[in-house]
Structures are given as structure tokens and as C-alpha cells.
């Protein structure tokens, strides 16, 4: 992911992407549903607990919806407040949204022959006093609003991408049983004819057929663990694509009698599964003479430094959205390549929560402190909102490049990189919620009603996850949900 339109230096490496190079989607006239063998369309959404839900419409009725002035389906107000079969506090059973269909999100579902999927927008039936139909609780709408604001007020555009780490299980109860215990990137984890090898190749085929750029897949370090890496897209497209990618992984594993889980960490003595989030920041404004390199981050542009400064400042509060379950905090610890617990950054430092990747002129940020229990729309919305503050305010980066884990640096070493009083990430989701509730800027950008309702659902959800009984039963419940 590149951050500059200028000519790349000879130090550049890798495939370079720009927002204008991402693929466009078919219009309603080009869907050719019957010709493509599509019989059913899944009208799909992702709730605050990152559960994917959908309604299945036959093509005949799906097409008929588009003869109306507002193509969509009705969904209860309680939809975004559901945890299991119960409603979180603050949600009611009365009232209904129109879930307005967004054809730009249309994709075929090769894992379910004859099916396609489309996302949408939670909208009110009648406009608000301001004239808006958009619900302040709609995750996709929150992301789109913040991306639009970044472009309109600061001239920023973005590319985003996700890594998908997951474990393939042959059983989940009473204890999870992994399919293959071979090591990281080891050929023994892809034995010819084995079910796990078939699953991974079918996942790759299905993603390519669905129009998602697959960059690679490989064996990860934990027992039964694999990773799929897909290409960058604009933020809304990237969030839609990772939802489709995860559904592809779940369903193809299920087809072969396996369970794929994105649970953050199944074993305390082995690696966890993250959803490392890559983000490049593209500015329409060239760095002027006053935007000279400073002591910290001299290889970055002024825009990147400003974005990074407030991203790090808000990172502890962001954890309520990017590490949203009790299980998230078992993965993010110091010294195990999961980002660590200090709010810092480092060039190709896997023990920093924000890793600077790529050569000068083609940098992007990798957030290692994200896992797949988080709603991807809310991950990108909150991260972009946090960094936008710095760009608009012209913030100066006050911390430097951590060349080793901050937890293992001496006080003198930390002081040398501006970490004399380092920020720390919360160690529980309860602490993360408290920090989010106290962050006035994020509440303003995400919306006070959104933050209030999100916190209510998150708290209710943790009670659901942790009330399963024994530790083994809690792990089973976590796997069943993620």
C-alpha cells in the first residue's frame, strides 16, 4: 500500500497500490443473476458482537424489491442489540429499520453454489429532523461517514486490508482438537490428500472466484493454524471483503466436517489468532516546506506522522472496539509478536501494536492489536477517526521508532524514543470500555448514542461469553461464536 503518488525510489519493493486502482463492482444492470446461476441472495449484516446474520431471498423477490423506491427489507430496532436470543439494555422490541440494499457490495458465494450476498444500510423509515435517513448505529454507515469526512475536511483517502489467522478443528468439545500440529510455514502442514490441504485450496479458489484478490495463504505457528492474506481495498470495500473472506473460510471448513475458529487464543502456551489490519494514508496535499522531517519518524510524511500521533494517543480507548472480548487480552501480551501492551510504534517490529511497513514513500501501518472478535467496520471507523484528529490539527509525532519490544527496553532506551511515560493498553475489556466512555473525541466522532449502545451490548456480551461454566465450556462458547 503506497502513501505517495510521487515516483518511487530504487529502495521501493513489493506491489504498490493506490485507491484508484481498486476494482469496481457491478451495477444493478450488470448483475446477470440468472445467467450466473444465482437462485438466492443473502441480505447480510454484521452486528456489534461481530456475528454475521442474513436473510435469504429468492432472486425473483430480490429483483422485485428494486421496483420500489427504497429497495430493502425490514429489520427490528433490536437487531443491533441482540446477544444470543436476548436484547442488551437500552434496546427495545418496538420499531423497525429499513435495511437498504447496497448493490456495490454484491458478491457471489462460491462456497454456497447458487447463492450471492449483498450488504446494506440500517435506515429509518422516516427522515430525522436534519433530513437524514441513516441510523447512527449502522456500522457500515459509521465507517462511510468517517471516511467521507476525512476526504472532505483533510483531503485523505485510505487503503485497508486484513490478515485472516484461524485454526481448523476436527472437534470443539469437550476440548478443541486441531487438524495438524506441524510448524509455521512447514510443508508438513499441507500434506497432499489431507482434509486441511483440500480446505485451504478450496478457500483460495472461492476467494478468487468471488473477485477478492488473494495474495497468499500459508501455515501459521499454532497447532491447526493457517493464514489467508488478501489485497488492499478502500475501507468500506475492505470491511465487506473480510466479512466475505471469513464466511468463505467458515463454510468451506464446515463442508469438510471441520470447524474454523478465529478465537484470539485457544492455548496459553501457543500462538493466538489475530486480524492484523493494514492501513495506508494518502493525502491530496503534498508535504510543504514547513512539513520537514523531525526527530521522530523522519522517513514518514508529515501526514503519516500526524496520523500516527493521535492514533497512538487514542489507542488505549480504541481497544474497546478492536480488542472487544475478554479473550482478546490473552493474545495481546508482551514478547510474543502480538503487538505488546505499550502504545508505541516500530519499523517492522512485531512487538509494537503499530508496525510501520514498507519503504519510504510507500509506507503503511499494520495494527497488530486487532483480532477477529471485532466488527471490521468499527475497527476501521475508529482507527481512521483517531488518526484524522492529528492530521487536521497538524500534530507532531512525539515518540520514535522502537527497534525492540518496549517492555524489554530500559528506562533510558524508552526515554530516547519519547516513551519516558509510555501509554499502556488496557489489560481487560472492562478497562477498555471505561477508557472509550471517557474519550470525548472518539465519542464525538463515532457518535454518543453509538458509543453508549455499543458499550451496553459489549458488556452484555461479555457476561454471555463468560457465564458458560467451566473454562472448557467458555472456550467452546467462544469457538461457537467466532
UniProtKB/TrEMBL annotation:
An MF annotation (GO) of this entry: glutamine synthetase activity
InterPro entries: Gln_synt_N_sf (IPR036651), Gln_synth/guanido_kin_cat_dom (IPR014746), Gln_synth_cat_dom (IPR008146)
Gene3D superfamilies found in the cross-reference section: Glutamine synthetase, N-terminal domain, Glutamine synthetase/guanido kinase, catalytic domain
Pfam families in UniProt: Gln-synt_C (PF00120)
One biological process term in Gene Ontology: glutamine biosynthetic process
The protein, known as: Glutamine synthetase
GS catalytic domain location: 139-482
